[in-house]
Amino acid sequence: MEDTAVTSERAALELARILSEHRGGDVVVLDLSVQAGWTDYFVIATATSGTHLRGLARFVDDSAPALGLARLSRHSTADDDEWILVDFGTVVVHLMTERARSFYELEKLWFLAPATKIESPAGASA
């Protein structure tokens, strides 16, 4: 049986790759396994608009079952939302507009967490 932490790491990195492929900006995976007792990884990505934000959330939801992840809660998203949190328990995905991301600065809040930046695929432009 595979270690849960390894499975969570693989799932977080795969979701980050998927977000990057769908033009999520500045995609980062934070390893919170030492700092937080309630999750192992944050995946953070920036969306360019509300429509892009909801589209990225849809790609995350569609990809999760194949990665062994099940969403813990679901809420409706308003057209003017600037942050969508997708909670899979061991992996929490934060999809934010640039304005929300610069305001909340999650990377600074969790500055002790090792961060992995996911590069955009070759040929993709933001």
Structure description:
This protein is α+β, with helices and mostly antiparallel strands. The protein has a single domain, classed as 2-Layer Sandwich (Beta Polymerase, domain 2). Helix content is 34%, strand content 24%. It has 4 helices and 5 strands. A 5-stranded mixed β-sheet has the order 3-4-2-1-5. Strand 3 and strand 4 form a beta hairpin. It is globular and about 35 Å long.
| CATH superfamily (homologous) name | Beta Polymerase, domain 2
Q: What would CATH call the architecture?
A: 2-Layer Sandwich
Describe the strand arrangement of the main beta sheet, using strand numbers: 3-4-2-1-5
Distance between the termini: 39 Å
- For this structure, the CATH topology is Beta Polymerase, domain 2
**Helical residues, percent:** 25-40%
Rg estimate, integer Å: 14 Å
Strand content: 15-25%
Q: What value does the average pLDDT take? A: 90
